[in-house]
UniProtKB/TrEMBL annotation:
It comes from Discostella pseudostelligera. GO terms for molecular function: aminopeptidase activity; metal ion binding; metallopeptidase activity. Residues 479-570 form the Aminopeptidase N-like N-terminal domain. Belongs to the peptidase M1 family. It comes from the Eukaryota. This is Aminopeptidase N.
């Protein structure tokens, strides 16, 4: 319709004539004097009638047309001055736009209306607010008083506002910062005439006003003509009242729309008689003053208002769930420097309070209970509106019936869960709105149920909504979260530098309500992020960037689309002020992919190596597995505070800074290779984890074990250092994984149950899982493994699958039966393979008997790689052969041998097992022989390690060890001088002694100080015997390194030289018993420290210096001070500084650590890297941590008590690696360790993460 809405019935309450049929045509005119115009038809009231008077009420039949029939055109809402309103209002005015009498009338009107609402406290929204709101100050209790206006200085000066937003309603009429039903009163003073989008504004007002609340739009006869809309200028007072009334009528279901005259017209006071004045002249003066005041009041500004009420819906026992804010997508935004209204009225507020007061008991999740979802989400749209200390997340979910679920096969545990189950942590996610398209009103218990951690929308409700949507259901939610308070770093959090997500495994439920499990793969069609443009100019999410732009108030937005279905754990969002570098990669099909790496601006110069590593990984995956990247953009972000090493979110990898930033000054060689490996790992997940993901979290090793194996292959092949890489990997397996197998947290690579899934990101799942994948390759061969991989992707691309599916692809592609091999997935513990041999000199027959024992009821399929070395010549007479051990015991025969041989067994660590002699004795002669002659690089190193270990154990047990030490020294010297060893890294590893933790696994009762002292003795003994050779070799390498100049390289030659020279340095400095030796060691280490051109050499020397005592103390203290000062605040270098001190071999190391934890300004439990650097490193410093007085245990207990409240994931992992192995220690230590576990278990509100570890540790 094009006509203005004439009133169809004559209103005779105060006026006889109403004229409103007006059209604006042509140029603007001002028909009257806004400053002096009077209203001739004003009624005079008595002093008892100083209240607002109704002029008329508006009914539906007073207007032509109904709600939605908006009659006004653009011309009606045009203005003389259409320039940016921000310019017009840029300068604060601090004036009132009505006179004192009008203000007084307005305040009394507010008092009358507010009182009539009869509420204990009122939440008020002042639209078009300024420096004063004219609200009554006495007799009214306010909750939130929020202003929305145009000038920040004026709003900040308004003492009645609890918070405010700078927003131009003519550009941005929507109010998404406010949830449905947020206010009791909405008022607007002398500004309704400036609104150019009144329809949208009045609709929003109705949405955010609570049922029973009132909207009060007041105006006078003053305005800025250039900014008022055209039809306002053409109308008289009655016309203007009708215009505002029509806004209510056409916009929403407003009721009791009423036009009011607010001005208090005072009667002229009675004049005293002449006689009275003669007797008392002051009476005359008082009368004159009173009469003047009345005249001033009655001649002042008129004041009108139009009132509308939000209709109250009366439904017994029904909670009306507000319309989702997703229906009101924010196009622009407000400033983010204020705290928004509270969420105490969230739909899940009562549940959150109940769970906080009485947390539910931990619930075990079992693999055998898995069933498909009855309903699945197939499409997702998300809106993130990020403000300081408040982020609003609106979601639109497309829901469909799951074809994989049958009537008797769903995830239903009781009749209440027969619908769509959405996971959400009510303690951090406030559910503000919930709706199902096609369903008018959702009723608690009837339509949906809130349970701890769950929102269940019943099937009947979904079906009602689907009846008009072709079987698809649309569910909308709006939630509020506070990322700044999220110290768990799971979900969306702010670490002080940026907003960032970590959703694996179950972090998405800390962002919004969603089926947060890996088998729900949905297309995230639209993710819109909006934030302050100054604080967060970079806005990233998964997939490809669709649109970005600027909003009002300096805010920015970006919209992302990911075409590939993914589970929620792969969702990612980053928002912050970040710098970046970029490059491109051309895929094998010719597509150009943009690669971008982001970090804090100060770290941008440390991103180049990671970017080059990514390009190498992309090319390697194409060449090795034929796997090409599938999008046009690949983003990587470096985050300082991150629980994991990195996360493979689709096209937006998020990395711990320690796993992506490198430069020679701050990064060691080990960190360079670690960065390259992890970059490869996360990229390789694009196919093994993202395109094909795991069905449930029990299948985690499907993606992690497979991808770890792939990154191990990558690291070994691209750097041409397969043997070195294999040694490094096996050190981890035999260290943390074998320890895990032997403790209370022992579990198969596919666990059977969990309480907190984060506890099963373990060395077993990752490292042993990778060894299981490696065994496929060993058994099937490289070509057979590739065929299995190809079939796996062909069958399951875009699916969530199981370990059984992977095994089936390997078996089917190669036509082999791998059913026995499947037992690896369900067997915990480390299998043991024993060996014995016999040789018949006459026949030349060599027999090798292998036997296996494990926790599996039936024998495992164990590939054992074996080679035979002629004992006389040292030549390899049988090359590597893979023996398939499938029985409890098998004998394998090798014929036609010319002489006695030594078997090199479990070459390249072909299976994750322990290999021991059937006799239980260590043949030190054979070990020394293999350490010198084995042609398999891995086994040559391994034999030396076992020989060194044998010597250390003899020292611990105080048994004769001279002969053993002689063999050790001979082997060491031979390795030191062997010219056939061309790789300095191999030589370095062959010279290193096994770690204290490795030796600890070989004893029945662990005595950490004894192990430390025995290892130290063996090391110094070797060093003394070969000191001259060591020093000569050290000096030769120093000269070679110096000859290369200062150019830093991380190639194999350069890294090998540095690694070997630092091994020599450690041996030379181990000679430190006398004062002179201590000074000599300190001088050598200090020279090494000061002359270092990179972190590798500097850190090696610092590790040595940090443990110096006696005559070396001053050098130690100087190095500690210099290392810290040289760090210049770099977080990763400061982490090293903490870590080295925590690992020092000093009698007072615990006191030093306690002091650092309690008083050093750089220490915090909120940063996982910093926490691990000090607390976890000290807990791994076995000799100090396990001091028999138990002080180390108490320190850790104190730290875990605090840490669990900050970050339960890190707390649980720290406890798991430190306290739960108490049964391996003597009675005194065990009792003290157990006491700390019991203390942790009894803590109030202990997290499920920590409780699960502690409970298992106490068994």
């Amino acid at each position: 319709m094009n006509q203005h809405p004439p009133i169809s019935k004559l209103k005779k309450s105060l006026f006889a004539i109403i004229s409103i049929s007006i059209r604006f045509v042509g140029a603007f005119t001002v028909p009257f004097d806004f400053q002096s115009r009077t209203t001739p038809h004003r009624q005079r009231y008595t002093s008892e009638q100083l209240t607002a008077k109704t002029i008329c009420t508006f009914d539906d039949d007073d207007f032509a047309g109904t709600q939605g029939d908006w009659p006004y055109t653009a011309a009606d809402l045009n203005r003389l001055d259409n320039s940016d309103d921000y310019v017009f209002y840029d300068t604060p005015r601090f004036v009132t736009h009505i006179d004192d009498s009008a203000i007084s009338s307005l305040t009394r009107f507010y008092q009358q209306e507010f009182t009539s609402l009869n509420k204990e406290s009122l939440d008020v929204l002042d639209l078009c607010s300024s420096w004063i709101s004219h609200l009554p100050k006495d007799g009214i209790t306010y909750g939130n008083v929020v202003g929305v206006g145009m000038n920040e200085q004026e709003l900040a000066s308004n003492e009645q506002l609890t918070n405010f937003y700078v927003q131009d309603l003519n550009k941005d009429p929507l109010l998404p910062q406010f949830e449905d039903n947020s206010f009791d009163v909405i008022c607007n003073v002398v500004s309704v005439d400036y609104l150019t989008k009144p329809l949208e504004i009045f609709q929003e007002m109705h949405r955010i006003l609570r049922p029973g609340g009132v909207s009060l739009m007041s105006f006078s006869n003053r305005c800025f003509p250039s900014k008022a809309i055209a039809m306002w200028l053409q109308a008289d007072d009655i016309g203007r009242l009708t215009i505002v009334g029509s806004y209510y009528h056409y916009s929403a279901k407003w009721t009791s729309i009423e036009a009011l005259d607010l001005k208090d017209m005072l009667p002229t006071p009675k004049r005293p008689s002449a006689g009275e004045i003669m007797k008392n002249p002051s009476l005359g003066l008082a009368w004159m003053n009173a009469a003047a005041a009345v005249a001033k009041n009655n001649q002042g500004d008129p004041m009108f208002a139009v009132k509308g009420e939000h209709h109250i819906t009366t439904m017994a026992n029904t909670t009306v769930v507000g319309e989702s804010a997703a229906a009101h997508p924010p196009k622009k935004a407000r400033t983010d420097d204020v705290v928004l209204p509270s969420v105490d009225k969230a739909l899940n507020a009562a549940l959150a309070a109940a769970m906080k007061a009485n947390p539910p008991a931990p619930k075990e999740v079992r693999r055998v209970d898995y069933t498909p979802l009855p309903f699945k989400v197939t499409k997702v749209s998300l809106d993130f509106n990020i403000f300081e200390r408040r982020t609003v997340v609106s979601s639109v979910l497309t829901v469909e019936k799951n074809d994989l679920a049958t009537a008797n096969d769903s995830n239903i545990t009781n009749d209440d869960e027969d619908g769509l189950v959405l996971n959400g942590e009510e303690g951090g996610v406030a559910l503000l709105a919930l709706s199902v398209d096609g369903v008018d009103t959702l009723t608690p218990d009837d339509d949906y149920i809130l349970k701890p951690g769950k929102l269940i929308i019943k099937a009947e409700t979904l079906h009602r909504g689907a009846s008009n949507l072709d079987g698809k259901m649309i569910v909308r939610t709006t939630v509020e979260i506070v990322p700044e308070d999220n110290t768990q770093l799971s979900g969306l959090y702010n670490d002080g530098t940026m907003y960032c997500t970590q959703c694996e495994a179950e972090g998405f439920r800390r962002i919004t309500y969603y089926p947060d499990r890996p088998d729900n793969m949905a297309t995230f069609e639209r993710v819109r992020i909006e934030a302050d443009g100054n604080k967060c100019p970079v806005l990233l999410s998964n997939g490809n960037l669709v649109e970005k732009g600027s909003c009002d108030d300096g805010r920015e937005y970006a919209i992302w689309h990911d075409p590939f279905p993914k589970p929620s754990y792969l969702f990612a969002l980053v928002a912050g002020d970040l710098g970046s570098i970029e490059d491109t990669f051309t895929t094998m099909s010719g597509r150009s992919v943009l690669l971008r790496f982001f970090s804090e601006h100060k770290n941008v110069g440390k991103l180049n190596y990671a970017l080059e590593s990514l390009k190498r990984a992309m090319q390697w995956d194409e060449e090795t597995f034929g796997l090409e990247y599938d999008l046009d953009l690949f983003n990587v972000v470096a985050v300082e505070s991150f629980n994991m090493g990195a996360m493979e979110n689709k096209s937006l990898n998020v990395f711990n800074t320690s796993c992506v930033l490198t430069d020679p000054v701050t990064s060691s060689d080990a960190e360079y290779f670690r960065v390259e490996g992890i970059i490869g790992h996360e990229y390789f997940h694009n196919w093994t984890g993202n395109r094909v993901t795991c069905r449930d979290w029990f299948q985690l090793t499907l993606k992690e074990g497979l991808t770890v194996y792939r990154d191990q292959l990558f690291s070994g092949q691209v750097n041409n250092c397969a043997s070195v890489t294999r040694i490094q990997n096996v050190l981890v397996v035999r260290g943390s994984q074998f320890q895990e197998d032997d403790g209370p947290m022992s579990h198969p690579i596919r666990p059977d149950s969990y309480i907190a899934m984060d506890n099963f990101y373990t060395s077993t799942v990752y490292r042993k899982g990778a060894e299981v994948i490696r065994m496929y390759d060993t058994i099937l061969g490289t070509d057979g493994f590739r065929k299995g991989m190809d079939l796996y992707f062909k069958r399951h691309d875009g699916c969530a699958v199981t370990c059984d599916d992977f095994l089936a692809a390997m078996a089917d592609a190669n036509g082999v039966d791998l059913s026995q091999f499947a037992r690896w997935y369900s067997t915990s513990g480390t299998p043991v393979v024993t060996y014995s041999s016999a040789f018949d000199q006459d026949s030349g027959l060599y027999q090798l008997t292998l036997s296996q024992s494990s926790r599996s009821e039936d024998p495992l399929f164990i590939p054992v790689a074996v080679g035979l070395i002629d004992k006389a010549t040292g030549e390899e007479v049988v090359p590597t052969t893979v023996l398939q051990l499938k029985e409890t015991s098998q004998t394998f025969e090798f014929s036609n041998l010319k002489g006695e041989v030594v078997a090199s067994i479990l070459r390249n660590f072909s299976a994750p097992v322990k290999i021991v002699s059937a006799s239980g004795n260590v043949d030190e002669g054979d070990l020394a022989f293999l350490a010198s002659c084995d042609t398999d690089g891995f086994n040559r190193w391994d034999s030396a390690q076992k020989l060194y270990e044998a010597a250390i154990l003899k020292v611990i047990n105080n048994v004769a060890h001279d002969d053993c030490l002689d063999r050790v020294i001979d082997t060491f010297r031979q390795t030191l001088k062997d010219e056939k060893i061309s790789d300095d890294s191999i030589r370095a590893y062959a010279l290193m002694l096994p770690s204290e933790s490795t030796v600890a696994k070989a004893v029945d009762c662990i005595d950490p100080p004894a192990i430390h002292n025995a290892r130290k003795h063996v090391k110094s003994t070797i060093a003394r015997c070969v000191k001259d050779d060591l020093l000569r070799a050290y000096n030769d390498l120093t000269a070679a390194i110096d000859a290369d100049g200062t150019t830093f390289n991380v190639d194999g030659l350069s890294v090998g030289r540095r690694r070997l020279r630092n091994v020599y340095l450690a041996y030379l400095c181990s000679i430190c018993e006398t004062g002179e030796e201590q000074r000599e060691a300190a001088d050598l280490a200090t020279k090494h420290f000061n002359s270092a051109t990179g972190m590798t050499d500097k850190l090696a020397a610092f590790n040595i210096l940090a443990s110096m005592s006696g005559e070396g103390e001053s050098a130690r203290d100087a190095a500690i001070e210099k290392f810290y000062n040289d760090a210049n605040g770099d977080p990763l270098v400061i982490n090293k500084w903490f870590s080295v001190q925590a690992d020092a071999s000093l009698p007072d190391v615990l006191d030093r650590v306690v002091n650092l934890a309690s008083s050093h300004p750089d220490f915090t439990l909120k940063n996982p890297n910093r926490c691990r650097a000090l607390v976890l490193t000290f807990a791994m410093n076995a000799a100090a941590f396990h001091a028999e007085d138990g002080r180390g245990y108490k320190f850790l207990g104190d730290m875990l008590d605090k840490l669990d409240k900050v970050n339960p994931i890190v707390a649980a992992r720290t406890a798991a690696s430190s306290l739960i192995g108490w049964k391996k220690y003597n009675e005194k230590r065990a009792s003290l360790m157990k006491a700390q576990l019991e203390r942790l278990k009894s803590m109030p509100n202990v997290s499920n993460d920590l409780l699960e570890i502690v409970t298992k540790g106490l068994k």
